[in-house]
Structure formats: C-alpha cells, structure tokens
User: Fold these one by one.
Assistant:
Number 1:
Amino acid sequence: MSSSTVEPIPPPPDRDPEPPSQKADFARARPHPTTGRGPLSRLADLVDAHALALLRVTVGIVFVGFGVLKLFPSASPAEQLAVDAATKMTLGLVPETVLLLSLAALETAIGIGLTVGRRLLRPALVAFFLHMGGVFSTLVLLPDAMWQAHSPAPTMEGQYVVKNVVLVAVCLVVAANEWGRRPRPRRTAG
C-alpha cells in the first residue's frame, strides 16, 4: 500500500483569492489597545451606562414633537381623535380649540420635563401617567373609532392608541428608577 497525500485545490484562475488581511470579520473586530474589548462591546457598555437617560430623553423628544404638531392645524394625525376624546371627557363644556391647545401644551411640557430631567422629571412623570390615562380612555369612550366592527381587532386609530403601551413601559422603568433613589441631602446655606 502506498500512502498518498491530498493537495489543496487551487482557486480558479479567473479569481484571485482575497488576502486574509483584507477580509471583513465584524464578529472579531480588532480589540481596543487599552481595554482589549471590541467596538461592539464598548458600544454595549456605553448604552448600558446611559440606558435610563436614553429612554427618558427619547420619549421626551417624541412628546415634544407630537405636542408641537398639535399647535398647527391638521398637522397631527391624532388631532381629531384627541379632540373627540377630550370633548367627551369634558362633557363638551370646553371649546375644541382650547382643548387642542391645552393638549399641545401638556404634551410639550411633558416632553420637556422628560428630556431635561432633574427637578422637572417627577412632575413630568406624574403628568405623563395622568395623560396616558386619558389616552387609553379613548378605547372605551370612542369604541366605533377604536375597534373594528365585527372583530376584536383595533382600527388604525386604535392601534395608534395601543402602541402607547411601549411609552408607558419605558416611563415605568424611568419612574421606578427615579422614585427608588434615595433623596439627595439638601445643602444648607451658610
């Protein structure tokens, strides 16, 4: 019996093999020279360190954006829905323009409070949860607009309301962190 060795098959002549130094391998990107960690690990650490602030500020920006939209007639897709629900809640005693401007101011103030944080955060969170109570009440107050006729599925307007559970979850996390902290000692003058 003779032993035979298997030689590697060379690449086809029309293609040059790519040098190993030029291959893109994102899973094993070069580690940082001082930490020894890759860029995705460092990014994950950065996001983890600032996760609560990131959540709080992004919800705040969303609220400022939607609040400001309500200042311009017909700019907000939820404008009529919000006015109809608020009209039912106030028994029609408050004019629609006042309701819309009040909602715009409230949402903008909540957004600013969430974005800025600090002393504005707790009042903004309280206002947020009260506002969400009103938002979710539309599912009951305006059933024809919120639910499909012969199905338990929400309409597009209903989906617009239901998606707010994500914002509620985010603000619950932010509120748990904020109210779970020990109060800072007050500085005394002198």
Note: The chain has eight helices and no strands.
Number 2:
Amino acid sequence: MTRGSTLPAHRLPRLPTPLDAFNAAPDDEAGALLLHCLHSLRWSHRIADHRPYPDVESLLAAADEATYDLSPGDLAEALAGECLPPVPDGTYSAAHTALSAANAAYEARFGHVFVIYLGDTPPAESLDRVLEGIRSRLTNDPEEERVIAAEELRRLARGRLAERLRGAGQHPSAAPPRGATSHARPAPGK
C-alpha cells in the first residue's frame, strides 16, 4: 500500500524580533531607544553606528565595550539620566531622611549622582542595599568611585538593553533592571 508523496515538513515563518526592528529602524528611532537605555549621546551613537547586530549578546557586548571609552563628560551625562527606584510602600519617613542625607553626602564628595545596580534584590530590601552601598562607597577615593559608578551604570544599561531588545516572554530571566541614584527626576523618555 502506498501513501502518496511525502510533503515537506511545514516551517513556520520566522517572526521579527525586537532586535530585528532595532537593526532596521531609522537612525533617529534607534538612537532614541539607545538614549532611553544609556542616557549618553556618544554611547548611544557608538552602538547605533555598528548596526546590524546578529544577536542581542553581540549588541550587549558592544555596549559593554563602549562603556570603557566613556569620557568623564559622557559618564556625567549618563549618570544625570538616572533616577531612584520607588521606595517600598510603608517605608518610614526616617528612612527617607537617611536616604536623602546619604545621597547629599555622596554627591558632595564625588560631584555626581549615586548609581547602583540592584539586580535580583527584593524590593523590600532595596532601600537597605542602597543605603549600605552609599555608605560603603563614601570611603572610596574619587577615581576608584568613578570606576565603580561606571561599572554600575554599565550593568544598569545592559539590563535595560536586554529587556528592550529580547522582547517580552523570550527570556524570563531578563527582568527589568533596578537601580538607584540620587536624583528623583525621571530620565529622558520615561
């Protein structure tokens, strides 16, 4: 008994990803997305100018590499775009006062905002982690702190880029980055 000709396996078309859209976007749209994530024009231009990227990891590696070339002005621009994460509900006013005082001391010492990558820190523990981070980093010399702040900023930017360019549901581990600085104003585009 013959069954007839065998049909080729059915292939679903490959759907475009957020990275595909980013790679194909006009320069101004790609630049706006990058500026929203990186908060630095030069950093954003460096990443946009090297499109297309074959995968998100290549883009993240390029963003990481570009971090090491940020001038003090680029770093200051990127840091100025950061803002504090929301303080958990039910936080005592004394905690707000402590955070404000610690932020003021940090900015007075280093002349720029405080930034920290909170990663998987539970929201209920984020305030303690921020306060602990500020207090421990206040002992750093300015050059050491500049290097640490740039690294924290790199980690925040990497998380934002991964979240935007991997797309919802593709990588559950790519949760939105959580970070903190001493300015409560929203970043551009937020």
Note: Helices lie at 18-24, 27-38, 41-48, 56-67, 72-80, 93-110, 123-137, 142-166.
Number 3:
Amino acid sequence: MATDSNEVNDSSEVLEAPEEGTVPAGTATAEAKTAVATAAPKPTTGKMSAYEMIRAFEAGQLKSGLPEIYVGDTVKVGVRIREGTKERVQPYEGVVIAKRHGGMNETITVRRIFQGIGVERVFMLHSPQVASVTVERRGKVRRAKLFYLRDRVGKATRVKQRFDR
C-alpha cells in the first residue's frame, strides 16, 4: 500500500531532541543525575515564611551601583530634600568616619566642618532620601572608626590620600 507524503504512518516513532536539563533514558551518568536534580526548582506551596518575605522585600529595595566606600574616604552624598511640592538634591561632602551594619541597614557617618563647627550626619545608603554617593578621594587610615577627628581642629583633621584603590 502506497502512502501519500501528507499521511502519517502510525507505526513510526517521532524522535525529538531532549529538553534542556534532561538526559535521555539509559544514558544518564551520576554527574548528569545530580546536575539535573540540583537544577530543578523547588516546588512552592504558595506560602512564604515571614523570614523569606522580609528577605525578598529587602532584596528588591537594595540599590545597585553604589561605590566601594571605606572609612577615611571623602564622599559627596546627594540628599533629596522636599520643600512643599518641589524636590531637589543637595550635596553633602565630608569624610567617612564610621561604617556600620550591612545589607539593607548599612550606614555611614560623614563629618564635615561647616562655618568652623563640626557637623556629622548618618546616612542609610539604601534609603530613598540618598540620591547618589560618589567617592571624591580615598583616605589612608589605619582604624575602623575615626572618632579622634572630633577632637582635632583645622589642618589636623586632614586625612592622607590613598592612591592604590
């Protein structure tokens, strides 16, 4: 019996390429089985624990593209200021004298001298009030906290510049 090219022969099997991440039966090795097992996503029941929900929310709020900031660096922080319906960005430049926490709660303490008076501000790096952070110059220090700068006046408050970072 002759078949037309349009008809499909029921006895023939159609061979398909295996899906990505799967191994054809009988050819699986121990390595391939573990690779497939680890690549498969975990089944979700639709409920997340409170810890997972907080972690997922915080991961979405983290800013990307922040520079590496070290204690002793001179930084310029752009702070969003809202006056009525208007919003502007005001720069605040000073020396980082402390870093605290990590992740979502990471803060830096920036000290500057304004009209002969030392002013310190604490900035949460991932806050929406912080528009930008740029490192103006790197400082060469040997301490984790530079609180001793509070007692110094004038040229004694200068920090040596570091050129290797």
Note: The chain has two helices and five strands.
Number 4:
Amino acid sequence: MKGTTRGRMSGRITGAPSRWLVAGAVTAVTCGLVLATGPAGAAQETAAQETGGQATAGQRAPAAPCVSDQLIANSAERIGGSSQVRITVINDGPEACVLRGFPTVALAGQGSPDRNRPLNVVRQGQATPVQLAVGGSASTRLTFTPVLGEADGYCASGAEPTVAPSIVLGVGGGGLQLAPDDGGQFALCGTTVRATAFRGSGP
C-alpha cells in the first residue's frame, strides 16, 4: 500500500523536517517493542485471544492476536488542533487478527526509530477486542500537553517545549514510525501523552 508504514520499524521517514529538537537522552528499543523503565515507561497491553480451547464443529477457530508485521499505518492525522492526533492501523493480511489494548508512544527523529524517547502513556477508556478482517482498521487517539502561544511557544509549567519530527507507536509487538500528516512536527510540554484504547474504524 503506497504511502503507508508497515509494523516493522524503518530507518527513515519521508517528508519530515530536517532537524530533530528532542532534548534528553535516547532510549533503545528492545526486541521491537518501545520500552522504558520507571514511570516513563508504559507497557503495551498486547492483543489477546479472547476464547480458549478448541473450536467445536461448525465454528471457526478464533483469530490470532495481531502482530506488527501485518499492520500498516499512514501518517498521524491532526484533529482538534496541534496537540491531538489520530492514528489508524490497518490489517494488511494475510489473515484476520484480533487487536486489543493501548499503544506505547515514543518521540523520535528522522533516522533510526531505535533512537527514541518513550513517553508516559495515560490510558483512556476500556480496552476491548477489535476483530480485524484483512483490510480492516482500528484507531487510537493521542493527546499531548499543548504548547501555548505562537512561534517558539511556551509551557504553562515553565519548562521548555519538546519538538520532534516523528513518533514511534508501539503496537502488535513492534513499532510504527510516523510523521504528522501536515508535514509539521510534534510539539508538546512534559513527558506524558494520553492514549485511547484501539477501536474499530473500518470494514
């Protein structure tokens, strides 16, 4: 699918700004998951199979949890201003799968997504299983603490704003590196992001 990012982290993103202004140390991604220790880390609630045991006659076996290799995504869609984005992931096949839970989120530059800065994810809503047929999609909404004012802006706390050209969304055991759909950058105050549970948004 043209213009999409697959759930295996790529080393480059196209159309992103040439400067990475994220302050602070970078944190490595281990085993394809965006991880961090302490309060800055937010463990991803991965997809889980909801029914156990063997399928009986006439019943179809439950779909397996979605894995990152079968998920793709477009850029992060701005909604409700610069501090909120919606990200839609699509099951690119070859089989149906079940997605459940919340993503992890990290700030990244233009290069390797392994060099990233994890954010503390505050979960919103209750996670329920989302059945994704091939071509089906699910969305999560991310809300950052906004930067106030214009131009360079400022934080209500008095801290310096943080700016990054991309984020790494942890989902299905891997990560998707995404830039904003308007060609800008992600700007936020603090180290926290609010994320909704994945919800079905397509066929």
Note: DSSP finds no helices and 17 strands in the chain.
